[in-house]
Amino acid sequence: MGIPKDMKDIPLLGNISGEVREAFLSLLSAENAKAGEIIFEEGSTSDRFFIIKDGEVEIRKAVDVQKARYKLIAVLSSGEFFGEMAVFMGEPRSAEAIARTDATLLTVSRNDLSGLFAKSPDTAFKVMEFLTSVLMERLRNTTKELAIVYETGRQVAAARSVPELSERVMDGLFGALDNAEAGLLIVWNDFNAEYEVCGRRGFGLEPGASISKDDGLMKWLFENRESFLSFNLANDGRLAGAAGGIYEGARSMVVSPLLSRDGLIGVLIAFSRTRTNAFSFNHMVLLSAVSGYATVALENLKYIQQEIDRNLLTQTKSSIL
Ligand code: CMP
Fold this sequence. Notes:
This protein is of the alpha+beta class. The chain is about 40% helix and about 25% strand.
Protein backbone atom coordinates (compact mmCIF):
# COMPACT_ATOMS: atom_id res chain seq x y z
CA MET A 1 0.00 0.00 0.00
CA GLY A 2 1.32 3.47 -0.87
CA ILE A 3 1.98 6.25 1.59
CA PRO A 4 -0.90 8.71 1.90
CA LYS A 5 -0.18 11.97 0.08
CA ASP A 6 -1.31 14.34 2.84
CA MET A 7 1.63 14.20 5.22
CA LYS A 8 1.19 17.62 6.84
CA ASP A 9 -0.27 16.30 10.07
CA ILE A 10 2.74 14.41 11.38
CA PRO A 11 4.23 16.49 14.20
CA LEU A 12 7.33 14.26 14.27
CA LEU A 13 8.23 15.64 10.83
CA GLY A 14 7.26 19.21 11.71
CA ASN A 15 10.84 20.53 11.85
CA ILE A 16 12.20 18.46 9.01
CA SER A 17 12.10 19.81 5.48
CA GLY A 18 13.60 19.45 2.02
CA GLU A 19 15.49 16.37 0.89
CA VAL A 20 15.75 14.84 4.34
CA ARG A 21 12.00 15.02 4.73
CA GLU A 22 11.59 13.26 1.39
CA ALA A 23 14.14 10.65 2.46
CA PHE A 24 12.26 10.11 5.73
CA LEU A 25 8.94 9.75 3.89
CA SER A 26 10.44 7.22 1.47
CA LEU A 27 11.34 4.99 4.43
CA LEU A 28 7.75 4.83 5.67
CA SER A 29 5.43 2.08 4.59
CA ALA A 30 1.69 2.24 5.22
CA GLU A 31 -0.53 -0.54 6.52
CA ASN A 32 -4.14 -0.84 7.62
CA ALA A 33 -5.41 -2.24 10.91
CA LYS A 34 -9.06 -3.12 11.46
CA ALA A 35 -10.84 -2.04 14.67
CA GLY A 36 -10.00 -4.61 17.37
CA GLU A 37 -6.90 -5.93 15.55
CA ILE A 38 -3.80 -6.44 17.69
CA ILE A 39 -0.94 -4.47 16.13
CA PHE A 40 1.63 -6.06 18.42
CA GLU A 41 1.56 -8.02 21.65
CA GLU A 42 3.23 -7.11 24.90
CA GLY A 43 6.56 -8.97 25.22
CA SER A 44 6.97 -9.52 21.47
CA THR A 45 10.19 -8.48 19.78
CA SER A 46 10.24 -6.16 16.82
CA ASP A 47 12.21 -3.23 15.53
CA ARG A 48 9.35 -1.27 14.03
CA PHE A 49 8.25 2.19 14.99
CA PHE A 50 4.68 3.37 14.17
CA ILE A 51 3.08 6.72 13.36
CA ILE A 52 -0.73 6.91 13.25
CA LYS A 53 -1.89 8.42 9.99
CA ASP A 54 -5.62 7.95 10.71
CA GLY A 55 -7.64 6.32 13.46
CA GLU A 56 -7.11 5.50 17.12
CA VAL A 57 -4.83 2.99 18.81
CA GLU A 58 -5.08 1.74 22.38
CA ILE A 59 -1.98 0.98 24.43
CA ARG A 60 -2.84 -1.51 27.16
CA LYS A 61 -1.08 -3.82 29.56
CA ALA A 62 -2.26 -7.21 30.84
CA VAL A 63 -2.75 -7.16 34.61
CA ASP A 64 -3.01 -10.95 35.08
CA VAL A 65 -1.03 -13.90 33.74
CA GLN A 66 -4.03 -15.29 31.81
CA LYS A 67 -4.27 -11.96 29.93
CA ALA A 68 -7.96 -11.82 30.82
CA ARG A 69 -7.83 -8.28 32.18
CA TYR A 70 -6.06 -5.21 30.86
CA LYS A 71 -5.18 -1.77 32.17
CA LEU A 72 -5.72 0.96 29.60
CA ILE A 73 -2.52 3.01 29.42
CA ALA A 74 -3.21 5.46 26.62
CA VAL A 75 -5.32 6.11 23.55
CA LEU A 76 -3.30 7.62 20.72
CA SER A 77 -4.72 9.20 17.59
CA SER A 78 -3.79 10.71 14.26
CA GLY A 79 -0.25 12.16 14.18
CA GLU A 80 0.93 10.39 17.35
CA PHE A 81 3.58 7.66 17.48
CA PHE A 82 4.14 4.43 19.41
CA GLY A 83 6.50 1.46 19.52
CA GLU A 84 9.56 3.66 20.05
CA MET A 85 10.67 1.96 23.29
CA ALA A 86 11.42 -1.44 21.75
CA VAL A 87 12.98 0.24 18.72
CA PHE A 88 15.40 2.44 20.63
CA MET A 89 16.05 0.17 23.62
CA GLY A 90 16.09 -3.14 21.70
CA GLU A 91 13.82 -4.64 24.37
CA PRO A 92 10.54 -6.58 24.10
CA ARG A 93 7.37 -4.51 23.68
CA SER A 94 6.42 -2.97 27.04
CA ALA A 95 2.67 -3.06 26.29
CA GLU A 96 0.14 -4.22 23.70
CA ALA A 97 -1.08 -1.99 20.87
CA ILE A 98 -4.56 -2.64 19.53
CA ALA A 99 -6.57 -0.69 16.95
CA ARG A 100 -9.52 1.04 18.64
CA THR A 101 -10.97 2.06 15.29
CA ASP A 102 -9.97 1.18 11.73
CA ALA A 103 -6.55 2.78 11.42
CA THR A 104 -3.87 3.58 8.86
CA LEU A 105 -0.36 3.26 10.27
CA LEU A 106 2.99 4.33 8.90
CA THR A 107 5.92 2.20 9.97
CA VAL A 108 9.68 2.43 9.77
CA SER A 109 12.35 -0.02 10.94
CA ARG A 110 15.21 0.71 13.33
CA ASN A 111 17.75 -0.09 10.60
CA ASP A 112 16.23 2.38 8.14
CA LEU A 113 16.03 5.06 10.82
CA SER A 114 19.66 4.61 11.88
CA GLY A 115 20.75 4.73 8.22
CA LEU A 116 19.01 8.10 7.83
CA PHE A 117 20.34 9.39 11.15
CA ALA A 118 23.92 8.40 10.18
CA LYS A 119 23.59 10.45 6.98
CA SER A 120 21.92 13.41 8.70
CA PRO A 121 22.86 13.92 12.38
CA ASP A 122 20.81 17.12 12.34
CA THR A 123 17.66 15.09 11.57
CA ALA A 124 18.57 12.62 14.32
CA PHE A 125 18.77 15.53 16.75
CA LYS A 126 15.41 16.99 15.67
CA VAL A 127 13.61 13.63 15.81
CA MET A 128 15.10 12.81 19.21
CA GLU A 129 14.24 16.27 20.52
CA PHE A 130 10.62 15.77 19.47
CA LEU A 131 10.46 12.22 20.87
CA THR A 132 11.86 13.44 24.18
CA SER A 133 9.27 16.20 24.51
CA VAL A 134 6.42 13.73 23.90
CA LEU A 135 7.92 11.16 26.27
CA MET A 136 8.21 13.83 28.98
CA GLU A 137 4.53 14.67 28.51
CA ARG A 138 3.65 10.95 28.76
CA LEU A 139 5.73 10.67 31.91
CA ARG A 140 3.94 13.72 33.37
CA ASN A 141 0.56 12.08 32.64
CA THR A 142 1.68 8.80 34.19
CA THR A 143 2.89 10.59 37.32
CA LYS A 144 -0.43 12.43 37.64
CA GLU A 145 -2.34 9.18 37.21
CA LEU A 146 -0.20 7.47 39.83
CA ALA A 147 -0.86 10.20 42.39
CA ILE A 148 -4.63 10.30 41.71
CA VAL A 149 -4.95 6.54 41.66
CA TYR A 150 -3.02 6.21 44.91
CA GLU A 151 -5.18 8.75 46.73
CA THR A 152 -8.50 7.59 45.22
CA GLY A 153 -7.63 3.97 45.96
CA ARG A 154 -6.94 4.80 49.60
CA GLN A 155 -10.12 6.84 50.02
CA VAL A 156 -12.47 4.54 48.15
CA ALA A 157 -11.20 1.37 49.81
CA ALA A 158 -12.00 2.83 53.25
CA ALA A 159 -15.66 3.67 52.40
CA ARG A 160 -18.16 1.80 54.59
CA SER A 161 -21.37 2.46 52.66
CA VAL A 162 -22.45 3.15 49.08
CA PRO A 163 -23.25 6.86 49.77
CA GLU A 164 -19.83 7.32 51.37
CA LEU A 165 -18.18 5.48 48.48
CA SER A 166 -20.07 7.65 45.97
CA GLU A 167 -18.80 10.84 47.62
CA ARG A 168 -15.21 9.58 47.50
CA VAL A 169 -15.53 8.49 43.89
CA MET A 170 -16.79 12.00 43.04
CA ASP A 171 -13.73 13.46 44.85
CA GLY A 172 -11.54 11.18 42.71
CA LEU A 173 -13.35 12.19 39.51
CA PHE A 174 -13.02 15.93 40.16
CA GLY A 175 -9.39 15.50 41.26
CA ALA A 176 -8.57 13.69 38.02
CA LEU A 177 -10.55 15.76 35.50
CA ASP A 178 -9.95 19.47 35.90
CA ASN A 179 -12.57 20.40 33.27
CA ALA A 180 -15.39 18.37 34.81
CA GLU A 181 -18.47 20.43 35.74
CA ALA A 182 -20.58 17.47 36.81
CA GLY A 183 -20.16 13.84 37.72
CA LEU A 184 -22.51 10.87 38.01
CA LEU A 185 -22.00 7.44 39.51
CA ILE A 186 -24.68 5.00 38.34
CA VAL A 187 -24.78 1.57 39.96
CA TRP A 188 -26.78 -1.61 39.34
CA ASN A 189 -29.25 -2.23 42.15
CA ASP A 190 -29.87 -5.99 42.63
CA PHE A 191 -32.92 -5.26 44.72
CA ASN A 192 -34.86 -3.26 42.07
CA ALA A 193 -33.05 -4.87 39.14
CA GLU A 194 -32.27 -1.50 37.56
CA TYR A 195 -29.49 1.04 37.31
CA GLU A 196 -29.71 3.88 39.78
CA VAL A 197 -27.89 7.18 40.36
CA CYS A 198 -25.81 6.72 43.55
CA GLY A 199 -23.57 9.74 43.36
CA ARG A 200 -24.01 13.10 41.73
CA ARG A 201 -22.10 16.35 41.78
CA GLY A 202 -22.98 19.36 39.59
CA PHE A 203 -25.93 19.35 37.19
CA GLY A 204 -27.82 16.29 35.99
CA LEU A 205 -29.97 13.49 37.32
CA GLU A 206 -30.90 13.38 41.01
CA PRO A 207 -29.53 10.66 43.32
CA GLY A 208 -31.96 7.73 43.38
CA ALA A 209 -33.12 8.33 39.78
CA SER A 210 -33.35 5.07 37.88
CA ILE A 211 -31.86 4.45 34.45
CA SER A 212 -33.39 2.03 32.01
CA LYS A 213 -31.26 -0.75 30.52
CA ASP A 214 -32.61 0.51 27.18
CA ASP A 215 -31.08 3.94 27.59
CA GLY A 216 -28.88 4.66 24.53
CA LEU A 217 -25.67 5.06 26.49
CA MET A 218 -26.26 1.93 28.63
CA LYS A 219 -26.97 -0.07 25.47
CA TRP A 220 -23.74 1.17 23.92
CA LEU A 221 -21.80 0.17 27.04
CA PHE A 222 -23.43 -3.28 27.08
CA GLU A 223 -22.31 -3.85 23.53
CA ASN A 224 -18.85 -2.29 23.68
CA ARG A 225 -17.78 -2.63 27.33
CA GLU A 226 -15.18 0.08 27.08
CA SER A 227 -14.67 3.70 28.05
CA PHE A 228 -16.33 6.29 25.86
CA LEU A 229 -15.29 9.84 25.07
CA SER A 230 -17.69 12.21 23.35
CA PHE A 231 -16.07 15.45 22.21
CA ASN A 232 -19.42 16.88 21.07
CA LEU A 233 -22.65 15.22 22.18
CA ALA A 234 -24.76 17.23 19.73
CA ASN A 235 -23.39 15.28 16.79
CA ASP A 236 -22.11 12.03 18.24
CA GLY A 237 -23.32 9.36 15.82
CA ARG A 238 -22.65 6.55 18.32
CA LEU A 239 -25.56 7.76 20.46
CA ALA A 240 -27.98 8.32 17.59
CA GLY A 241 -31.53 7.72 18.73
CA ALA A 242 -30.63 7.81 22.43
CA ALA A 243 -33.02 9.68 24.68
CA GLY A 244 -30.15 11.59 26.26
CA GLY A 245 -31.67 11.49 29.78
CA ILE A 246 -28.32 10.74 31.38
CA TYR A 247 -26.47 13.54 29.66
CA GLU A 248 -29.22 16.14 29.28
CA GLY A 249 -27.64 19.60 29.19
CA ALA A 250 -24.08 18.36 28.60
CA ARG A 251 -21.93 19.36 25.62
CA SER A 252 -19.15 16.83 26.08
CA MET A 253 -18.59 13.87 28.36
CA VAL A 254 -16.30 11.01 29.25
CA VAL A 255 -17.67 7.70 30.45
CA SER A 256 -16.09 4.68 32.07
CA PRO A 257 -17.96 1.42 32.69
CA LEU A 258 -17.70 -0.44 36.02
CA LEU A 259 -17.04 -3.98 34.84
CA SER A 260 -16.90 -6.85 37.30
CA ARG A 261 -17.20 -10.62 36.98
CA ASP A 262 -20.98 -10.05 37.16
CA GLY A 263 -20.89 -7.80 34.11
CA LEU A 264 -21.70 -4.10 33.79
CA ILE A 265 -22.36 -3.14 37.42
CA GLY A 266 -22.34 0.60 36.84
CA VAL A 267 -20.89 3.57 35.09
CA LEU A 268 -18.94 6.67 36.03
CA ILE A 269 -19.47 9.81 33.94
CA ALA A 270 -17.94 13.29 33.86
CA PHE A 271 -19.66 16.11 31.97
CA SER A 272 -19.04 19.60 30.74
CA ARG A 273 -22.04 21.82 30.09
CA THR A 274 -20.11 24.82 28.79
CA ARG A 275 -17.55 23.22 26.47
CA THR A 276 -17.33 20.80 23.60
CA ASN A 277 -13.93 19.01 23.58
CA ALA A 278 -13.62 19.50 27.35
CA PHE A 279 -11.95 16.09 27.75
CA SER A 280 -9.08 14.21 26.16
CA PHE A 281 -8.19 10.54 25.90
CA ASN A 282 -5.85 11.13 28.78
CA HIS A 283 -8.85 12.15 30.93
CA MET A 284 -10.54 8.95 29.82
CA VAL A 285 -7.57 6.89 31.05
CA LEU A 286 -7.69 8.72 34.40
CA LEU A 287 -11.44 8.15 34.74
CA SER A 288 -10.99 4.43 34.00
CA ALA A 289 -8.49 4.24 36.86
CA VAL A 290 -11.04 5.81 39.23
CA SER A 291 -13.83 3.52 37.98
CA GLY A 292 -11.56 0.49 38.48
CA TYR A 293 -11.29 1.35 42.19
CA ALA A 294 -15.02 2.06 42.43
CA THR A 295 -15.74 -1.41 40.97
CA VAL A 296 -13.54 -3.25 43.48
CA ALA A 297 -14.89 -1.20 46.40
CA LEU A 298 -18.52 -1.81 45.38
CA GLU A 299 -17.90 -5.54 45.12
CA ASN A 300 -16.28 -5.53 48.57
CA LEU A 301 -19.23 -3.65 50.05
CA LYS A 302 -21.60 -6.17 48.48
CA TYR A 303 -19.71 -9.12 50.02
CA ILE A 304 -19.59 -7.39 53.41
CA GLN A 305 -23.36 -6.80 53.22
CA GLN A 306 -23.99 -10.43 52.20
CA GLU A 307 -21.89 -11.58 55.15
CA ILE A 308 -23.86 -9.33 57.55
CA ASP A 309 -27.16 -10.67 56.13
CA ARG A 310 -25.93 -14.28 56.47
CA ASN A 311 -24.92 -13.72 60.11
CA LEU A 312 -28.26 -12.07 60.86
CA LEU A 313 -30.10 -15.00 59.33
CA THR A 314 -28.07 -17.53 61.34
CA GLN A 315 -28.68 -15.58 64.56
CA THR A 316 -32.42 -15.30 63.83
CA LYS A 317 -32.65 -19.03 63.08
CA SER A 318 -30.83 -20.02 66.27
CA SER A 319 -33.00 -17.68 68.40
CA ILE A 320 -36.18 -19.26 66.94
CA LEU A 321 -35.01 -22.87 67.44
P1 CMP B 1 7.08 -0.29 22.98
O1 CMP B 1 7.59 -0.73 24.32
O2 CMP B 1 7.93 -0.57 21.80
O3 CMP B 1 5.65 -1.00 22.76
C1 CMP B 1 4.55 -0.56 23.57
C2 CMP B 1 4.40 0.93 23.34
O4 CMP B 1 3.40 1.54 24.11
C3 CMP B 1 5.67 1.65 23.83
O5 CMP B 1 6.75 1.28 23.00
C4 CMP B 1 5.20 3.07 23.75
O6 CMP B 1 5.20 3.56 22.44
C5 CMP B 1 3.74 2.92 24.20
N1 CMP B 1 3.61 3.31 25.63
C6 CMP B 1 4.09 2.65 26.70
N2 CMP B 1 3.78 3.32 27.84
C7 CMP B 1 3.08 4.42 27.46
C8 CMP B 1 2.47 5.51 28.17
N3 CMP B 1 2.52 5.59 29.50
N4 CMP B 1 1.84 6.47 27.45
C9 CMP B 1 1.78 6.39 26.09
N5 CMP B 1 2.32 5.37 25.38
C10 CMP B 1 2.97 4.42 26.04
